[in-house]
Amino acid sequence: MRTVASIVKQLKKERDRAAKQLSGLNAALSAFTGVYAGTKPTLKKRTISAAGRKRIAAAQKARWAKIRAKKAA
Question: How many CA atoms lie within 13 Å of 46's alpha carbon, on the beta-carbon side?
């Protein structure tokens, strides 16, 4: 019976140690999320010039014209 009692005592000690580690982890998590919870990185919106939009539109029109020319031929 002595060995069973010592095993139970050792298991209780291990349970207490694990509970202490878990409470430490929970405290660390709550501190970490408290600092970084509400902050999102803000991305600066990119803008394109009117000339750039015109170049892109002209290039796309040329691509479509090339596709249409292949279909017509």
Answer: 3
Rounded to the nearest angstrom, the gap between the alpha carbon of residue 68 and the centroid of all alpha carbons in its chain is 43
Tens-digit pLDDT profile for residues 6-65: 999 999 999 999 999 999 999 888 887 766 666 666 778 889 999 999 999 999 999 999
Task: Look at the chain and report how many structural domains it folds into.
Answer: 1
Q: 55 is in which domain, residue-wise?
A: 2-72
Q: Can you spell out the DSSP letters for 21-69?
A: HHHHHHHHHHHHHHHHSS--PPPPPP---HHHHHHHHHHHHHHHHHHHH
The amino acid at 17: R
Distance CA 7, CA 50 (A): 79
pTM above 0.85, yes or no: no
